[in-house]
Design brief:
Strands 1, 4, 5, 6, 8, 9, 10, 11 and 12 form a 9-stranded mixed beta sheet that branches. Strands 15-17-16-19-14-18 form a 6-stranded antiparallel beta sheet, with helices on both faces. A two-stranded antiparallel ribbon has the order 2-3. The chain contains 13 helices and 21 strands. Helix 5 (132-145) packs across helix 8 (215-224) and helix 10 (305-311) crosses helix 11 (323-335). By secondary structure, the protein is of the alpha+beta class. Strand 4 (91-98) and strand 5 (101-112) form a beta hairpin.
Length: 411
Amino acid sequence: MHTPALPIPEPTPLRLRPFRAVRYDEDLVGDLSGLVAPPYDELGPAQARAQRTRPHHIARLIHTHDPQAAARQLRRWLHRGVLRQDERPAIYVYQQQRGARILQRGLIGDLLMPRHSTGPAGPLLPHEGVSPHVVRQRAAHMSGIGAQLEPLLLTCRGTESTAAQVVDRLTRRTPAAVARIGEITHTLWACTSEEEVSLVTSGLPRGRALIADGHHRHAACLRLSEEPGSPWESSLALLVDTSAYPLRLSAIHRVMPGLDTEKAASAAAEVARVRRLPEGPRPPEPGELVLVGAGRAWTITEPEPGALHEALTGHPEQWATLPAAVSDQLLLAAVWSVPDLPGAVRHLHDARRAVTEVAAPGSGTALLLPEISEDRVRELAGSGVLLPRKSTSFGPKPAVGMAFKLCEVLS
């Protein structure tokens, strides 16, 4: 007897709510450009240490091994008026701009996250797996400081025209905050009118929003929300309509400080085609990885099907076409025996920086990965396939310190 297929449930609508953001008081601290920071994972240890030496810099709250000390710092800043909480709840329009070109525009708000937020009927669509260890770290930092300093970066498609018009109108008003990092100007506008907030939030797309960045923070929120009466049942989020403002999608590269490049190339040749690049390092093309070290470079293509199948045992068959799966499962784990331990592999978003870090003899090996498209990411995520960790980097990501959310009462 034929059993009818169960209908696919309609996704829960996105509920982006106004909230009272915590922001720097520019009348007291002056230009925000010297106080806000790039996202957590785009700042190296030396840069983070340098920024932490500046009074009132947001890095003092983000880059810390003592969340309770950071919470005390946050309380002092609130008490002294360095930071203040906006009096009225708002949806915030956030924009990044280089010269006359708008790179990104989206809405920052408080996103309600039901327990099934990433299930088939949930409003969010994750595309990468998470590390339980990192989730625990993020949860400890967030609960320790009692605040969300960085929003989840979410992408959607198809905002209603009325909502888009309201957002455009808001950007012609006096901004609530402006900062500049490098060549990029970051601008924030506050929408406090109940009528405008309703028009903007009711015009959000009905489909699921892709988690472009913040999988570990999202998982940390869900972990913290398990406590009864938890204040973590919602998350600070930046929602960007990529049909209007496409994000840049780039690969994340691997650097192995303890791996000899010549030996790595020789071992890789046993399971794939390895070809020397006489001209030296270059960005990888689709379908290839580029192995780099001490100024030398090789392409790695055409992995041997049997070896790849064995390396991907227990993983989705779609992983066979994903650069990060070939990199991490076949090469790093199976061929080079690189342990999955802190310090054994570093993940860098900038290919040039990865090449520079292994330029000196004996400084290790870099593996450069090609980028994949947002359509491919959405296709896999929509079918329930999570990409390997650190597969992609969506950008530009929001600056940290323009607006954040208190999640617990700070006495």
